[in-house]
Amino acid sequence: MSHASDPAIPLTLSQPAANSERQALRKAARASFMGNFVEWFDYAAYGYLATIIAATFFPDADKTTGLLATFAVFALSFIVRPLGGVVWGHFGDRHGRRNALSWSILIMSVSTFCIGILPGHAQIGLWAPALLLLIRLVQGFSASGEYAGAAAFLAEYAPAGRRGLYTSIVPASTAAGLLFGAAFVATLHELLSTEQLHEWGWRLPFLLAAPFGLVGRYIRMSLQDTPKFLEMEQRLEHKAGATPAPIRELLRDHRRSLCIGIGVTCLNAVAFYLLLSYMPTYLSTEMGMSERDSFIASTVSLATYIGLIFLMGRLSDYFGRKAMLIIASLLFLGLTVPLFSLLDQQPLLVILAIQILFGAMLAMNDGTLPCLLAEIFPTRVRFTGFALSFNIANALFGGTAPFIATWLIQATGSKLAPAGYLLAAAVVALVAMLACRETAHRPLSD
């Protein structure tokens, strides 16, 4: 086949060069997929096993208080994310995207493995929840560079006109991690007794992080850095004098883009963790569904999300990031309350239909978001800008979403309380997108 028929390959490239570029792009896609997969497989396991983890590390609390404590530890791990975003962003913008991503997946895998071997409250008392929190903080720090770095990496590798498609690999990999986590936990529930799950079964998904992480690091270390980053390095070599730190340059010259990035990420932060991580717990504890049915519903939602995420990324290449994100915000504003209202005491097929619709709405938002965040910042501060805006929003609204949802239900007595939280996030994202310029159909800024 002539390379002239492939829009992803410039006409000026020879066939060997085109093949080499295609191979590098495929390796970049695999490397980006693997790291996010490992990270969100861990978050899925933690979220779906929350009731068992609560009994293991907070056995003296009543059921609701123990669940709140477990989600509080989940939320606190997000506190360090903005700091991690600055650190990993600086490292990635100064020393290369590949190096930052290789170290982040290693730290994430080791810390996740440590949860799998951590003694419970029965063995070491209060040290158990304290060490759990410490490990989650390390995870939060390492994870803060993963999503942003992978998206920036792919945006800088992808051909012009297909950045939306390629960067959609990042949210797809997060959902794949959640899907595999849901399927793994569901299998544990089927194969093991309640006693076995509480004694040792819940540890198995965390122990898998070690081999996953080693494979991901190996793939990443075999890559070259992105063409955009290498071009920037060559330009800077010819400039005299020291360049400012990426965070200083970001806060001095790109404050507007940073605020837009934080605002538009709010919807992703709240919706992702409410609909794909917290929802099984919500359905089983608040809506009276069996754990088996709640896992089935969430698995179908995740499968829908993954199936549509690449389509939404590709559509954003045609219609623009702004249009897609505004439509997604409006859909959440119009449908969130009605859909949450229909979840109560419904048969499984109705729950499945609602979950599929939620998954499609979220895919429209998340399939577009990573490309927008990569495009609104120039190469010199792209990693830092993406990581800081994404992690501030997730620290304030994403990681706290399961905790806030549980607390709102307890405080108000209303099962619809989480819907109000999701509506607020959609309003913030809509305002941010109305203030944003279209970034598609133009080259990445240098």
Overview in brief:
It is found in: Cell membrane. The chain has 446 residues and is an all-alpha fold.
Poorly predicted parts? 1-13
- What general outline do the C-alpha atoms trace? globular
The CATH topology comes to Growth Hormone, Chain: A
The top level CATH class name:
Mainly Alpha
- Beta strand count: 0
Please report which band the strand proportion falls in: under 5%, 5-15%, 15-25%, 25-35%, 35-45% or over 45%. under 5%
What is the rounded distance between the termini?
34 Å
Largest sheet: none
| Contiguous helical run count | 23
**Element pattern in H and E:** HHHHHHHHHHHHHHHHHHHHHHH
| Strand-pairing-aware structural class | mainly alpha
Question: What number is the mean pLDDT?
Answer: 81
Radius of gyration: 21 Å
Overall helicity: over 70%
Within CATH, the superfamily carries the name: MFS general substrate transporter like domains
Instruction: Provide the domain count.
Output: 1
Per CATH, the architecture is Up-down Bundle
Description of the molecule:
Belongs to the major facilitator superfamily. Metabolite:H+ Symporter (MHS) family (TC 2.A.1.6) family. It comes from Pseudomonas reidholzensis. InterPro entries: H+-coupled_symporters, MFS, MFS_dom, MFS_sugar_transport-like, MFS_trans_sf, Sugar_transporter_CS. The chain crosses the membrane at residues 40-59, 65-88, 100-118, 164-188, 200-219, 258-275, 295-313, 325-343, 349-374, 386-410, 416-436. The protein is built from 23 helices and no strands. The chain is mostly helical. The protein has a single domain (26-229, 249-434), classed as MFS general substrate transporter like domains (Growth Hormone, Chain: A). The radius of gyration is 21 Å and the shape is globular. Residues 1-13 have low confidence and may be disordered.
